[in-house]
Design a protein that fits this description.
The structure holds two protein chains of two kinds. Helix content of chain A is 19%, strand content 38%. Chain A is α+β, with helices and mostly antiparallel strands. The chains are: A alpha+beta, B alpha+beta. Chain A: This is AP-3 complex subunit mu-1.
């Protein structure tokens, strides 16, 4: 990292030295830097003029101050620029902007970029990006023009720039054809920009996943401080032609706080509580919703806990037990308990009745992989905690973070009634799957 | 094979090798070479030396290769302008290509090349593309106009591109409309005066239609543009709101927040009585809450904006406290913002929950967060009086933890609690004193010293405690030094016998041994006060302190209103107006909220619709800039009033006694009463009245010279009084006043003078000087000169306030012999700024509910009972409620005066 004085001069030079770039206002995103966890800038893209990498030093400075990568503030101001960043899959997407812009616009866009990489390369990682650097560049160019987002829908991008496949790269190298589409994407300007035309499948299928996550804070005594359900309906639609779908629910009243994919006709929902839409092709999120009314949010598990540290002694006791609460008769599985133990904890010596546990003495994180609950014998984890000798007894009580999963259940009670298709003649195969998971589910001790 | 192969280099010199490959005859090899060049570019390597070779690859029918070359050109054209010109022909040719994708690509790339020579060639192709048959090309061209404008604004205007762009707002394709709007907004931003986006109901309608059909990004541009529109009346505002509301359910949070901005702004124009207003309030809460379940970066921006919204319209989220509860693995920047909003939403209804949470947070690991949580507990105590006791005991529990920074924060906030509730929680002082030694932060030390000084009489060893601080006086920070000085002086004034030595020690430390001018000045002031007039010193140092306000860090209302117009922007994240930090601040236009229209409320007085309404409702915040400026001007223009210092109380009291009898008669009749008879003022007779006209108060004086000599050099001064009345300008008597001559002078008054409670409340003591002597008199002013123009409360507020004020503060009066009907009463009172909020007819009696506000922000609510149609019952019954009940009888007086005049 260069020293501060030098950086200021560089920044100044960059902005005011006429040989480089006359200062000119630029709407939206000026440049993008991709940075990995060890602080290497491994990709940069400039939409207008080149901004020196040194601008990222401000970001590194903030990162250092934040100690934890997740705590780096998303908006950082520097003498001549603003840096707006998102943290995804252990990568920082740092954008440089110069004038007043809506930060949410930028953040949404950056997440969309990450989503697109994920979609194209199967993962959004440094390796995947480096392996496909030319496609990445073409994508970024296609997604943003002079700061105006151009094409961000996966369906359209895929018509403009074909995703890499092993087969295609072989074919390309034989035939000399390219991975750039040379015709204008059909959906781009129609009233349904999210769908490409001429879709054909031999098996026509439409699947919907209703996924609900419970966010909750449970206090020491086991009562619920806060609970809400974050639900989404993800769709995987492989239907030929231009299908027009209607999805109805047994209990649409549950959905009073909903965000829609642009394809949904809002008026139909307002008047009839039916989701009516021409779907994009492939995977997409149809709606997300929130159920917050306390009496609708069931808490499927309970935790009994006793964590205590003795005064003037270098040990403490740890004892937690998990049991089912309102699980609607379904099995609760995939349970994991994570605890950030206080800094003075040196080691933990525990015995689980079920599953296995690990304790990382560096990060002080205890992870207990429980598996599923069988009501006959409730899983528990007991034992001793070794503290740094001589250190004062820790003041804070660690919170327990619980993960779990319940198949075939939407905890809010939401149920799909029927799916109808219009506009096409074939009979599609339809399916709905429900799953409930723990979101940010915390138990205070 | 992956693209990582493009990064490998050979020893021979990469550039050299690439050059050879770029000039290869084989298409495939060329393409691979260009890819290598691009790969180098992505990691910031300078490959500009290859410019001519890459440009040579441009003429190709392979679209991928063309795109790659274009990518390269955009990066380096600026550094190689002469070379870039080589590319122009291909660009121009590509703009004619039958494939719309290539036409669009060419015009788009050309716009990105910021080289003057190229821009000249861009005009013709651009003109064609703006009228292209393919909407994809048109929408790309629209953005290109903005790019070109950025390079050469004059050229764009000369070529008439702006008009073409304006025409595109009416395009049949919504994406073209959205891009045209985006381009125009960008251009308009750099030329605020150009009036490019002259929005009218027709164009607004087009935008609203396009809003439903264009992409999410286009929606943001259109919504931001709509937010700049000023609807002509509340009906139009409502219809726009209705069409924007569906955007609140969009999956893209930026769309949601832009929609919130439009709604928050236009809501300002809707009457609160409207059903739709309530519906809209309800609709705003869920989308805001939903933003909090998004990624943490989005949450952060959302929270910064919610912070503004909560200050402007707390009612939207008042039931949503729980969503702001902090999860332990939230990023710290989210935690701190959530905490801030929790305090803003704290009220009597939810305080128990909030406190339980705050206590939980105070035991977390993160130091910054814990500190803020402890402070938050103090703020709760100050904000919700009922919870103060609980808060104090929570703070004491936290002090018992002995965690150093927790203790220090707790002491800082306890000091504020003492300020807010004097003589209530002093029992905890002993506990605080136990922790004296552990305090190492200046703010905490200063707070503790303040507490010791303030309550010196109850702390037995106060002198020892303060003495212990004094030992390291020079090492303390200024904050602590100043506090220590004041505290010891307080101690001395309370226990003079034992502490003489201590006070001398601190005074000499502050005045002789310190380099700090603030400290020295304060030291000298105390020294002189103590040595010349200990009684005055006591009055100054131990004076009653003004109460501290509930909300300490509210954003100043005019700024808040401006920021509401910038919801979703960087300004909203930094809580500063864009002009404060945008680079260069070029021509940033200040935005303001639209005024509320008064179509549904006929009772509203014409002048009672000020734009900055909220600023007037909160008297204890900084006055709007205009006022400040006015004051400064006054200071500059008027020569200093050379009046004598006001005499001590004995002289004034004498004056009151002497005038005593005559004063009562003054109130009843409106004729100018004699305030100062000639015989008492060596021939000067003063009579006068008080009036209020359109917001300004004046004292109309009549000076008569009944002496035999000429009078000159007039000056006037007021003693401190209950409402801070003071002359706004010096008394100007232009010519000398000859014997038997009378002048009439209207002296403008303001209410920014010093305040001291008088008995009776409306008593005003005046000193007038002329070349002969100084004269004193006192007079009573009618209270209605203090009724301000924006004294109209809205109904809900009236109801809530009426209920809120304790019943013992209610006063009943009768106004006899007033044969007026409700309309007449209402209009008469309104002309004196008593506003009728609502009217009801109960059993043949008219009930008027009225509100008025005094210049110092005190509200008075009234219920007036009239019995029309019954000539025998001409008495009116007046009930007054006010938080300061002592004003009631004077308000009653004012009613009498106004109604019977």
């Amino acid at each position: 990292m260069s020293d501060f004085g030098f950086r200021v001069i560089q920044e100044y030079f960059l902005n005011y030295c006429p040989e480089f770039e006359l200062f000119s206002p630029q709407k939206m995103i000026h440049s993008l830097f991709l940075i990995n966890c060890s602080g290497d800038i491994f990709l940069e893209k400039h939409w207008k003029s080149v901004v020196s990498q040194s601008v990222c030093d401000y970001f590194f400075e903030a990162q250092e101050k934040a100690a934890d990568v997740e705590n780096v503030p998303p908006v950082i101001s520097t003498p001549h620029h603003y840096l707006i960043s998102v943290y995804r899959e252990k990568l920082f997407f740092v954008s440089v902007i110069q004038t007043e812009v809506p930060p949410l616009f930028v953040i949404e866009f950056l997440h969309r970029v990450a989503d697109t990489f994920q979609d194209y390369f199967g993962e959004c990682s440094e390796a995947a990006i480096k392996d496909n650097v030319v496609i990445v560049y073409e994508l970024l160019e296609e997604m943003l023009d002079n700061g105006f987002p151009l094409a961000t829908e996966s369906n359209i991008l895929k018509e403009l720039i074909k995703p890499p496949t092993i087969l295609r790269s072989v074919v390309n190298s034989i035939t000399g054809s390219s991975n750039v589409g040379d015709t204008l994407p059909t959906g781009q300007l129609s009233n349904i920009p999210w769908r490409r035309a001429g879709v054909k499948y031999t098996n026509n299928e439409a699947y919907f996943d209703v996924v609900e996550e419970i966010d909750a804070i449970i206090d020491k005594s086991g009562s619920t401080v806060f609970a809400e359900i974050q639900g989404v309906i993800d769709a995987c639609i492989k239907l030929s032609g231009m299908p027009d779908l209607s999805l109805s629910f047994m209990n649409p009243r549950l959905l009073d706080d909903v965000s829609f994919h642009p394809c949904i006709r809002f008026k139909r929902w307002e008047s009839e509580r039916v989701l009516s839409f021409i779907p994009p092709d492939g995977n997409f999120r149809l709606i997300s919703y929130r159920v917050s009314s306390q009496n609708l949010v069931a808490i499927p598990v309970y935790v009994k806990h006793s964590i205590s540290f003795k005064e003037n002694s270098s040990c403490g006791r740890f004892d937690i037990t998990i049991g089912p609460k309102q699980n609607m008769g379904k099995t609760i599985e995939g349970i994991t308990v994570t605890v950030h133990m206080p800094k003075v904890v040196l080691n933990m010596n525990l015995t689980p009745t079920q599953g296995s546990y690990t304790f990382d003495p560096v990060t002080k994180v205890l992870t207990w992989d429980v598996g599923k609950i069988t009501p006959q014998k409730l899983p528990s984890l007991k034992g001793l905690v070794n503290l740094q000798s001589g250190a004062p007894k820790p003041e804070e009580n660690p919170s327990l973070n619980i993960q779990f999963k319940i198949q075939q259940l939407a905890i809010s009670g939401l149920k799909v009634n029927r799916l109808d298709m219009y506009g096409e003649k074939y009979k599609p195969f339809k399916g709905v799957k429900y799953v409930t998971k723990a979101g940010k589910f915390q138990v205070r001790t | 094979m992956t693209d990582s192969k493009y990064f490998t280099t050979t020893k021979k010199g990469e550039i050299f090798e690439l050059k050879a490959e770029l000039n290869s005859d084989k298409k495939e090899k060329k393409k691979e070479a260009v890819k290598k060049v691009i790969a180098s570019m992505t990691v910031g390597k300078d490959v500009s030396a290859l410019f001519p070779d890459v440009v040579n690859c441009m003429q190709t029918d392979n679209l991928e290769l063309k795109k790659l070359v274009y990518l390269y050109l955009m990066n380096y054209a600026k550094s190689q302008p002469d070379m870039a010109i080589m590319a122009v022909n291909t660009f121009v040719k590509d703009c004619e290509d039958p494939n719309p994708l290539i036409r669009a690509l060419a015009v788009r790339t050309m716009g990105c090349i910021r080289v003057d020579k190229i821009t000249e060639y861009l005009c013709e192709p651009l003109r064609k593309c703006l009228k292209d048959e393919d909407p994809y090309v048109r929408k790309t061209a629209a953005v290109c106009v903005a790019k070109l404008h950025d390079i050469n604004a004059q050229l764009v205007e000369d070529q008439g591109f702006l008009d073409t762009l304006k025409d595109l707002i009416s395009d049949s394709n919504p994406m073209v409309v959205a891009n045209a709007v985006a381009a125009l907004s960008e251009i308009a931003e750099s030329h605020p005066s150009s009036n490019l986006l002259d929005l009218n109901p027709q164009s607004i309608n087009k935008l609203l239609t396009a809003l439903n059909e264009c992409t999410e990004w286009g929606q943001i541009f259109i919504l931001d543009c709509l937010a700049n529109y000023m609807p002509k009346d509340d009906r139009e505002a409502q219809s726009i709101c209705e069409r924007v509301t569906p955007r609140l359910s969009h999956a893209n949070s930026a769309v949601v927040l832009s929609a919130v901005k439009v709604l928050m702004k236009f809501m300002e124009m809707l009457s609160k009585d409207l059903d739709y207003y309530g519906t809209l309030l309800k609709k705003l809460a869920p989308p805001l809450v939903t933003l909090l379940s998004a990624e943490p970066e989005l949450q952060y921006v959302a929270l910064r904006n919610i912070n503004l919204i909560v200050q402007k319209r707390p009612e939207i989220l008042k039931h949503e406290m729980k969503v702001f509860f902090v999860k332990y693995n939230d990023p710290i920047y989210v935690k701190l913002e959530k905490l801030d909003i929790m305090i803003r939403l704290a009220s009597q209804a939810n305080i128990a929950q909030v406190l339980a949470e705050l206590k939980e947070y105070a035991t977390e690991v993160d130091v910054d967060f814990v500190r803020k949580a402890v402070r938050a507990i103090g703020r709760c105590a100050i904000k919700v009086e009922q919870s103060a006791e609980r808060c104090v005991s929570t703070l004491l529990d936290l002090i018992q933890t002995k965690v150093n920074y927790v203790v220090q924060e707790a002491i800082v906030v306890i000091k504020d609690i003492f300020r807010k509730y004097p003589n209530k929680y002093e029992s905890v002082i002993a506990t605080l004193c136990e922790n004296l030694d552990s305090l190492d932060e200046p703010e905490a030390r200063a707070a503790m010293i303040w507490i010791v000084g303030e309550y010196a009489e109850r702390i037995d060893n106060a002198d020892e405690l303060l003495e212990s601080f004094l030992e390291g006086f020079h090492d303390e920070s200024t904050q602590v030094q100043l506090q220590l000085l004041t505290a010891i002086v307080k101690l001395f004034l309370k226990k003079p016998t034992e502490t003489q030595e201590l006070v001398q020690q601190v005074l000499s430390l502050a005045t002789q041994d310190s380099d700090n001018p603030d400290l020295r000045d304060r030291g000298y002031i105390y020294w002189r006060l103590l040595s010349t007039d200990p009684v005055a010193a006591k009055e100054v140092v131990l004076a009653e302190k003004p109460l501290i306000s509930e909300e300490t860090d509210l954003i100043e209302p005019t700024l808040l209103d401006e920021l509401i117009c910038y919801i979703g922007t960087l300004a909203s994240v930094y809580h500063k107006p864009p002009s404060a930090f945008v680079e260069g601040g070029r021509g940033v236009v200040h935005k303001s909220l639209p005024p509320r229209t008064a179509s549904s409320e006929s009772t509203e007085s014409p002048e009672a619709a000020p734009t900055g309404a909220p600023s007037a409702e909160q008297p204890d915040v900084i006055p709007p800039q205009g006022d400040l400026l006015g004051d400064l001007l006054n200071l500059d223009l008027g020569p200093p009033v050379s009046g004598p210092p006001l005499a001590t109380s004995s002289v004034q009291m004498g004056a009151v006694d002497l005038l005593g009898g005559g004063l009562d008669s003054l109130m009843g009749d409106e004729s100018e009463g004699v305030w100062l008879p000639a015989m008492k003022a060596k021939g000067l007779e003063i009579s006068g009245t008080f009036t209020r006209q359109v917001g300004s108060i004046s004292m109309d004086l009549q000076l008569t010279n009944k002496a035999l000599q000429v009078m000159t050099d007039f000056a006037i001064q007021f003693n401190r009084n209950s409402f801070g009345l003071a002359p706004a300008a010096p008394l100007q008597v232009h010519a000398p006043l000859s014997p038997n001559q009378t002048v009439e002078i209207s002296l403008p008054l303001n209410t920014v003078g010093s305040v001291m409670k008088m008995e009776p409340l409306n008593n005003l003591q005046v000193a007038v000087k002329n070349n002969i002597d100084v004269f004193y008199f006192s007079t009573l002013y009618p209270l209605h000169i203090l009724f301000v123009e924006d004294g109209k409360m809205d109904r809900q507020m009236f109801l809530a306030t009426w209920k809120d004020i304790a019943n013992e503060n209610e006063a009943q009066f009768q106004i006899r012999d007033c044969p007026l009907n409700a309309e007449a009463v209402s209009s008469k009172l309104q002309s004196s700024n008593i506003f009728t909020v609502a009217r009801r007819n109960v059993e043949g009696q008219d009930m008027l509910y009225q509100s008025l506000k005094l210049t110092n922000g005190i509200w008075v609510l009234a219920e007036l009972r009239i019995q029309p149609g019954n000539p025998s019952l001409t008495d009116l019954e007046l009930s007054l409620k006010c938080r300061a009940p002592e004003v009631s009888q004077h308000v009653h007086q004012a009613y009498e005066t106004i109604l019977k005049n």
